[in-house]
């Protein structure tokens, strides 16, 4: 039986040095897929867009530049747990977002209580075994 963690954070969608829009972003974590987190961006005038990436990448990006390919997360400054940049790229198109580190830390802390980092495989196996046991018990009862 999977459990989820959800949170909504406000991010700044940085269009240029002079222009940024504040947008709500839904953060999701599902214990059935414990390696991933999902960010659903609700950009003005567009349909919501969901990006899934490594929970570990998000954690690493709070303190140092992290990510390869289409997703990069890094601290906005050297100050401990200030703001974080999240950069998403599709082809030649790039979107840059800025978000406070505190709500990301709170979200990651809640995910860690469900499935501790480093324990994803063990928890996945345990969940599958519990589902099997409960299914057998329901058929028997």
TrEMBL record:
<keyword id="KW-0132">Cell division</keyword>
<comment type="similarity">
    <text>Belongs to the SsgA family.</text>
</comment>
<keyword id="KW-0717">Septation</keyword>
<dbReference type="InterPro" id="IPR006776">
    <property type="entry name" value="SsgB"/>
</dbReference>
<keyword id="KW-0749">Sporulation</keyword>
<dbReference type="InterPro" id="IPR038658">
    <property type="entry name" value="SsgB_sf"/>
</dbReference>
<keyword id="KW-0131">Cell cycle</keyword>
<protein>
    <submittedName>
        <fullName>SsgA family sporulation/cell division regulator</fullName>
    </submittedName>
</protein>
<dbReference type="Pfam" id="PF04686">
    <property type="entry name" value="SsgA"/>
</dbReference>
């Amino acid at each position: 039986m999977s459990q989820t963690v959800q949170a909504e954070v406000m991010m700044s969608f940085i269009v240029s040095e002079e222009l940024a829009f504040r947008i709500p972003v839904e953060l999701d974590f599902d214990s059935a897929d414990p390696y991933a987190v999902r960010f659903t961006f609700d950009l003005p005038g567009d349909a919501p867009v969901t990006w899934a990436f490594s929970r570990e990448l998000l954690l690493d990006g709070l303190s140092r530049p992290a990510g390869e390919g289409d997703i990069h997360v890094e601290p906005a400054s050297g100050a401990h747990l200030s703001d974080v940049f999240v950069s998403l790229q599709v082809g030649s198109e790039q979107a840059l977002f800025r978000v406070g580190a505190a709500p990301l830390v709170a979200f990651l802390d809640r995910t860690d209580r469900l499935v501790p980092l480093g324990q994803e495989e063990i928890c996945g196996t345990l969940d599958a075994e519990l589902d099997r046991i409960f299914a057998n018990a329901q058929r028997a009862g």
